[in-house]
């Protein structure tokens, strides 16, 4: 077991991680104390891992959940979103404020700002970092929204009912705009593409979301690029100058894997750690999970990089199963090939999506997209492979199961919103 002292447990901020000689073949080190890192530690204990678990997180805060940051936490309706996990009781050595700067797989060591830490098994769970708008660094009043600190900086901006410009009409931009309107701010959303959610949904579907902005009182300017950010204003490429007490940039996120650059661990062109179906990386006994990793999906016939909460919940169970069972003879272990799922709360609507579709798949509408509740199914060779549900959570629950089963749907029945989706199976 661990040679760590009791005082290094549960928030040993600033102290060295002691003990754990390389010969400790039961020491799991997890880098990143977000959803995926915490869930990996918990899953290891749930699955009976008897050895040391060391969880290293760069942020100073008790590990917390991110979805509330663009919702209740932003609006001051919740103080925080710390995970309800008793790390000490689970024997998880949690080290906060501990940034890992590199890893040497040949020596089974990670380097931290407080010295090296040896591992027998390593789990990379460093998540993603938001992409900054070029030229925005150092401009006062420009914000990103990824961390609790970001949300805390934005709270008074909302409370002050300022003029806000949001750059990017993706999931984060839409949720932030929702909260800012609810707080009484004047909101303009600037989007370079011709529609919101251009990277996620086809034009026919996204077209029905445009009106949501106007209904909430936000101004959406699509097909518009930001030319320059300056204190108090945003200049657009078409010459418009928008007053802005604050600018929130939500133009995407990329895997936080810069610290792996010299490790020899294989990364993809998108910066994701390249893992196999067991979420194993190219280095022995090194796994990756959550927003930082891509994995091959036999279900969808391509490698997937998923930046959603459910992926950070499900992946850890696969990683834990492989670490716990890895030494057993003839162990094959589970393959990670989920039906991706996420939800978003925007403009008073509950939007959910399951699966993964391409432009070549057949779209089937369920219900009137100008109404408050409707869905869209995507079929491939008659099988349900993805579903978007707006205010129809039952469609999502049933659809997700049908996607997992590879169920074939009768198109006419699937298109009838009065027919439960599960009754549309052929
Ligand atoms: C504002 C917001 C709202 C969201 N809302 C939704 C939603 O409604 N629905 C949904 O499905 N998904 C949502 N998501 C996405 C979801 O929260 C993420 O998919 C999930 O948090 C990923 O978990 P993770 O542990 O992989 O990464 P993260 O949550 O990013 O955690 C990674 C952790 O690793 C730490 N770290 C990074 N580098 C290092 C290092 N070198 N050393 C040590 N520690 C390091 C980071 O500080 C961070 O705490 C939202 C995300 C955000 C930001």
UniProtKB/TrEMBL annotation:
Swiss-Prot/TrEMBL keywords: FAD, Flavoprotein, Oxidoreductase
Location of the FAD/NAD(P)-binding domain: 27-312
Record flagged with keyword Flavoprotein: yes
InterPro entries documented for this protein: FAD-oxidoreductase/Apoptosis (IPR050446), FAD/NAD-bd_sf (IPR036188), FAD/NAD-binding_dom (IPR023753), FAD/NAD-linked_Rdtase_dimer_sf (IPR016156), Reductase_C (IPR028202)
Keyword Nucleotidyltransferase belongs to the record: no
GO molecular function term, any single one: oxidoreductase activity, acting on NAD(P)H
Cofactor(s) it depends on: FAD
PANTHER family linked: APOPTOSIS-INDUCING FACTOR 1 (PTHR43557), RIESKE DOMAIN-CONTAINING PROTEIN-RELATED (PTHR43557:SF2)
Protein name: Oxidoreductase
Gene source species: Streptomyces buecherae
């Amino acid at each position: 077991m661990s040679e760590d002292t009791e005082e290094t447990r549960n928030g040993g901020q600033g102290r060295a991680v002691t003990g754990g000689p390389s010969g400790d073949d039961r020491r799991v080190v997890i880098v990143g104390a977000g959803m995926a890192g915490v869930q990996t530690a918990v899953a290891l204990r749930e699955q009976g891992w008897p050895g040391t678990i060391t969880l290293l997180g760069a942020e100073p805060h008790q590990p917390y959940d991110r979805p509330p940051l663009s919702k209740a936490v932003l609006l001051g309706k919740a103080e925080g979103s710390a995970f309800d996990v008793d790390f000490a009781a689970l024997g998880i050595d949690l080290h906060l404020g501990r940034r890992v700067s590199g890893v040497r797989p040949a020596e089974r060591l990670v380097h931290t700002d407080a010295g090296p830490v040896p591992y027998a098994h390593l789990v990379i769970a460093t998540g993603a970092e938001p992409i900054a708008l070029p030229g925005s660094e150092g401009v006062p009043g420009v914000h990103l929204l990824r961390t609790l600190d970001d949300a805390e900086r934005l709270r008074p901006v909302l409370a002050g009912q300022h003029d806000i410009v949001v750059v990017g009409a993706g999931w984060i931009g839409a949720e932030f705009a929702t909260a800012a309107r609810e707080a009484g701010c004047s909101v303009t959303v600037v989007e370079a593409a011709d529609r919101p959610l251009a990277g996620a949904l086809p034009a026919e579907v996204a077209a029905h979301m445009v009106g949501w902005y106007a209904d909430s009182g936000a101004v959406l300017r699509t097909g518009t690029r930001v030319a320059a950010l300056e204190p108090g204003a945003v200049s657009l490429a078409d010459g418009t100058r928008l007053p802005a007490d604050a600018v929130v940039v939500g133009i995407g996120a990329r895997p936080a894997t810069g610290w792996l650059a010299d490790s020899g661990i294989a990364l993809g062109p998108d910066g994701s750690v390249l893992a196999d179906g067991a979420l194993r990386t190219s280095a022995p006994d090194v796994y990756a999970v959550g927003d930082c990793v891509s994995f091959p999906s036999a279900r969808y016939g391509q490698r997937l990089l998923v930046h959603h909460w459910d992926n950070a919940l499900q992946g850890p169970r696969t990683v834990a199963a492989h670490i716990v069972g890895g030494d057993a003879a003839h162990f094959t272990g589970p393959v990670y090939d989920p039906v991706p799922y996420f939800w978003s709360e925007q403009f008073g609507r509950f939007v959910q999506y399951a699966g993964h579709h391409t432009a070549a798949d057949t779209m089937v509408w369920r219900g009137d997209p100008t109404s408050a509740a409707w869905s869209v199914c995507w079929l491939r060779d008659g099988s349900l492979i993805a579903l978007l549900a707006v205010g129809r959570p039952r469609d999502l629950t049933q659809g997700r199961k049908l996607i997992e089963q590879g169920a074939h749907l009768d198109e006419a029945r699937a298109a009838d919103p009065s027919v439960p989706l599960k009754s549309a199976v052929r």
